[in-house]
Design a protein that fits this description.
- The structure is a homodimer of 353-residue chains.
- The first copy, chain A, is α/β, with parallel strands linked by helices.
- Chain A has a single domain, classed as Ribokinase (UDP-N-acetylmuramoyl-L-alanine:D-glutamate ligase, 3-Layer(aba) Sandwich).
- Helices cover 41% and strands 18% of the residues of chain A.
- In chain A, the strands form two sheets. Chain A has a ten-stranded mixed beta sheet with strand order 3-2-1-4-5-8-9-10-11-12, with helices on both faces. Chain A has a two-stranded antiparallel ribbon with strand order 6-7.
- In chain A, a hairpin with an 8-residue loop joins strand 10 and strand 11.
- In chain A, helix 3 packs parallel to helix 4, helix 7 runs antiparallel to helix 8 and helix 8 runs antiparallel to helix 9.
- The longest helix of chain A has 34 residues.
- The radius of gyration of chain A is 20 Å and the shape is globular.
- The interface between A and B is large, with 57 and 57 residues.
């Protein structure tokens, strides 16, 4: 395979997120690193925690890095002139102090790139909670708010978008309002809100993902993609999403002459919402994810059938084993399904919202 | 890509080694994990250290995991029934206590596999030193000696083989003696000694790698492969070598009916040295490595030319920068040269020694 087999030019990425030992547990950096490497990125993985397995198992062992350790590792890179990053991806951070530490890293990289607009791009996944519930300490929220103005693309889920914008999303109108607030208040260039589920009547269950790139008057350009839901809980999908968005946005931007050297890769005002590079990127990302997750669901069901035939009725102990087996069976099948990552077949198209 | 595009059946690997943040620094688990994943393994990466960069830069920041942390992470996997490993790869360990902790993990996995011979296989890289010099504490040596009897394949370099066998290798005779000692004294099924450099007269510089699989009378079956040297110091080549050996040995063994269910995958006595699966595996591994390193050398030279044209004569400070730039330029070019990993073209064949 030559360079042309990779969707993007050579790209050095600093990825700051959690590390989980159990291999098939592709979450955090374990997920993001492999996805980005497979697509041709050089990835510096700065691990904020080392856990035995992801928390979906209900029990876990391991350690968290302190904010000082995170800053120290970055300083180590700088000391040896190894901080030549084109992009940064930040995911789960174990507390407000580490959020601040990562903000300092991002600002340092951004500052270095001042004279070359577009030469550094930060994808921030503000991991804080889901389904109406915070799963980080409360002081993490204001810490993230202080970072927003330096991010180039943020990837909150519905709950995180509500938390950051202060707008409760209940319909299309409030969704637009949340996005407008984030653009206007924090001047965030690109926003994608994932896992949007609005009360609908009757229709088959579906999830929406909505994106927007800021216009020069700070107004949004909003598009959305609807995808069918797969009835299963998977871990690490947020991390896969973030890693793929990073690669595919760089690809879409590099396909448009001159855009890569504009600040934050923001398209001119005459580009409509559904024609944005962000929309092209999201289409490919969702195609990859749908392929991988459909395959995972298939294997998961096979594995659970086997488990149910083998283990039967041992009361409480077997209930715990069942839950653990379900977590294990639903681990995303990544390594052997790389074709979906490398060659996504776009089926769901961006539409105006 | 379907399953048949991968050289081996589904394989869960526990990889215990160091983690280095700087992406293009492919050393330790950073190297081994990507190589094994690319070739279709599910890899559980248990990181024994997290350093900003490899020690070749002469300066480094980061932390070491304690032996208790290592044991704890493994216990976390066991608690959730996530310890179904087919193979284990152990590399750099930060001290005697962690060597012991890893021995305990290996014995636990081995014990679980007692009733199914060949269902667990441990590749042990006894990282201790090189070129006549230990770079670990002295008590690491006896700690490793205690593990040897449980390993299935060990991958010492010449100095480590001397240290473990007590035989100084100066010619073919002493080389054979060292291998015989390791087979007989510790009953190690498979041995590969890397970076063997014996005093020769006149000939072009070359490196030898020598392997052996034990026969039923504990005698060795020795073969060797000579490869041309590439005049440059690369970091992480030992880890790439170990990861590739793990995959390619499993592949070679799975091509021989029934061998995978024999204890430690040891071939019958009628299989000659150069016909061993270990020899087939080594041929492919060296082909991959030669491809990757030749490409790396090419890029390294280009990069250093650029550096030398840019940075000229600033005394002491520039000498330090030069050394750092040399380390960076020699980082193994892995991600974008994956074809050499996936499709090695064998050029150097195993020969009798």
């Amino acid at each position: 395979m030559s360079d042309s087999d990779f969707p993007i030019p050579e790209t050095n990425v600093l990825a700051v997120a959690s590390h989980v030992v159990y291999g098939p547990s592709y979450v955090g950096n374990t997920m993001a690193t492999f996805v980005m490497q497979l697509l041709g990125c050089e990835v510096a993985a700065l691990n904020t925690v080392q856990f035995s397995n992801h928390t979906g198992y209900g029990q876990v062992k391991g350690t968290r890095a302190t904010a000082t350790e995170i800053s120290d590792l970055y300083q180590g890179l700088k000391d040896s002139y190894l901080d030549d990053f084109d992009m940064m991806l930040s995911g789960y951070l174990p507390g407000a102090a580490s959020v601040e530490a990562v903000g300092t890293i991002a600002r340092d990289l951004k500052y270095k790139a001042t004279m070359k607009p577009g030469s550094f791009f930060w994808v921030l996944d503000p991991v804080m909670g889901d389904n109406g519930r915070l799963y980080v300490a409360e002081d993490v929220v204001p810490a993230y708010k202080l970072l927003l103005k330096d991010a180039d693309l943020i990837l909150p889920n519905q709950f995180e978008a509500e938390t950051l914008s202060g707008v409760k999303i209940v319909d299309i109108e409030t969704l637009k309002q949340a996005i407008s607030t984030l653009h206007e208040q924090y001047r965030i260039p690109h926003i994608v809100i994932t896992s949007i589920s609005l009360p609908t009547s009757g229709a088959a269950p579906s999830l929406s993902i909505v994106g927007s790139t800021i216009a020069s008057d700070a107004k949004p350009r909003i598009f959305g993609i609807k995808i069918p839901t797969i009835d299963c809980y998977f871990s690490g999908t947020g991390d896969m999403f973030a890693a793929l968005m990073l690669v595919r946005l760089r690809e879409a931007v590099s396909n448009i002459e001159g855009l890569m050297s504009k600040p934050s890769w923001v398209s001119d005002d005459d580009v409509e919402a559904t024609e944005l590079p962000l929309a092209r990127a999201l289409e490919k990302v969702l195609a990859s994810m749908h392929g991988i997750l459909a395959k995972t669901k298939e294997k998961r069901d096979e594995e659970m059938d086997k488990f149910n035939n083998r283990v039967k009725g041992f009361g409480e102990e077997s209930e715990k084993r069942l839950k653990l087996a379900q977590s294990k069976a639903a681990e995303v099948r990544l390594v052997r399904n790389e074709q979906y990552l490398k060659h996504p077949e776009v089926r769901f198209r961006a539409e105006n919202v």
